[in-house]
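Researcher: Here's a chain I'd like modeled. Treat it as a single chain, no partners, no ligands.
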Amino acid sequence: MHLDALFSPKNVAVIGASRTPGKIGHTILKNMIEAGYAGELFPVNPNAESVLGLAAVKSVDDLPTPLDLAVLAVPRDQVPASLKALAKHHLRCAVVVSAGYRESGREGLKVEGEVARICRDHDIALIGPNCLGVLSTTDGINASFAPGFPRRGNIAFFSQSGALCAAILDWAIGESIGISKFVSLGNKAVVDETHMLYALSQDPETKVVLGYVENVEHGEAFLRMARKISRDKPVIMLKGGSTPAGAKAASAHTGSITGSDPAYEAAFRQTGILRAHTVSEMFDLAQAFSCQPLPQGPRLAVVTNAGGPAILAADAVGRSLLSMAALTPQTVDTLKADLPAAASVYNPVDMMASADPERLERTLSVVLDDPMADSVLVLVAPTAFTDPRAMAQAVVRAATGSHKPVLCCFMGKALMEDGARLLKESGFPCYPFPEQAVTCLEAMYRHGVRRSRPSPVMASVEGRKDLVRKAIKEARALGMTDIPTEGAQAVLKAYDLPVARARLARTSDEALAAAAKLGYPVVCKVASPQIAHKADAGAVALNVRTPEELKAAFLEITGHVKVLRPDAHVSGCIIQEQAPAGMKEVVMGFKRDDNFGPLLHFGLAGVYVDVLGDVSHRLAPISMGDARQLVREIDAYMLLTGVRGEPPANIEALEDLAIRLSQLALDFPEIYEADLSPVLVNNERAVIADARLMLLPR
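Model: Modeled as a single isolated chain. Structure tokens:
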């Protein structure tokens, strides 16, 4: 991909450059001129001698060769022919701003496919179609129809939504936030977020990468690239379409399928991407990362002129991974000697409402020198004594050059706006409320911890693939979409997954023979691929102790199911060893996500999963750390550690189970979904009591 030519082109052609103000072709050319582009700029218009003072090129055929960048502002149906003509000039990059492609229906999808084929055949890096355009403040590029041009900075932003690009660009200009690169990806017919991550990872002008996505193309490539770049630069993403209503809107917007939100949450978490849930949060984080160093630890000190807001800040710290720093005795003594007697010299350091800029500067300098503080939050509320601009200047004097991050909260709006703006322009993020600042510092701390750790190594195990292939082949031969019980057990055993001993009994006599081999007590449950939750269907008998009880249970279960579920195919009953008393029930499994592949899930069985939705997720492949977090991340995890005198569950056995299940999912993409429910676990072992393995259609 020639994305260097996108951001630093030596020449640019605007196809469809118009003399009429308000036309997109006119706006793009005008933006390029006003951005200060120093290269060759060619407006292409067959009906004009000049456009905006530049000599017009009558035809694409008259453009120079090679051509770095072409911006196409012509109707959709003219785009394919224009690209074919541009390809003869060895075009490297194209930006297509016109709409009416896949988002408009079948005909638009067909044209988009043709446009993509032309670009791929001729090695043209295509941005769009259906996009706003591209900006690079470093090289004076504004190949877009967005109003305004931001100041130069180190934050890059790419978005699938052009309208969101325009709004955020206007907001960044209004907030004096510096931008390095700005890209509207549109329909991503060729260049997608993975290409953009790579390009921005190589850009020396970019320190922080922001992205808005509705769906991710080529999920596995995206995961690999995100893991790589997020160790060097913070990547902050906002995902649109995370609810059913949003997903429906996204489909109408760009024709994209947004995918499951748990899969995106797992993808971001496992690759180190910081997920923002609002546009405001995304830019809160961007400001902090763009101009302040990472904290070297979790300990935060608060310097304030107001007690109440400081308490709110401490509450926010208590809900985060951060901690309130315990200042050294030397720092406390210094503060006591300088501050009024009524001031609080412990953390938070409350200088009192009468604090002036000189007092703030001295106090902040002392706290910054304390080795027990890894970061500092300066929290100023408006009082009769407060000069916001002078207070901001005091922060700048005390904190400039510090190796510790200093974030500010100037609470309020009208009175504090002048001071807040001065801080931002001086490189000190300033927020209207303390919770925002604490959230940003926590994200910076988490990012720093991730960078300091070695790259995770994906766990790997070997399985008997021949046995799994055999089970799949036999299920296919029977025309089944579920692997039958005996085959499913063979699949799990092939990967050393712990399966409770069981046998399929087609008759009551076979049930008695199976129980004789397994030993009483046993479990008797219906064998039917259509009945996933057997207990809910009244199709399970536990702790069956005698042949008489077993025969009665077999006949009752099969008869009951025939009446209750006449649509279900019943092949008999599974006779299974009875697990020891006191084992806890958990569920584990995976489902193949269209974007990212196998998505593992884990939770406590019953109401914890079915009603409360207490489920954790990870994408395969997983590392040892991922397996640990998969089990420990659920809210009900403490119930597995042993409460009220109960012995703790064997967590390591569950982690091992997750790793082996992950490997099975990777090795056999034919298995679309696996549901291990329940998995029984005690302090000694974990064992799979029931499993359902579903196959993709041929």
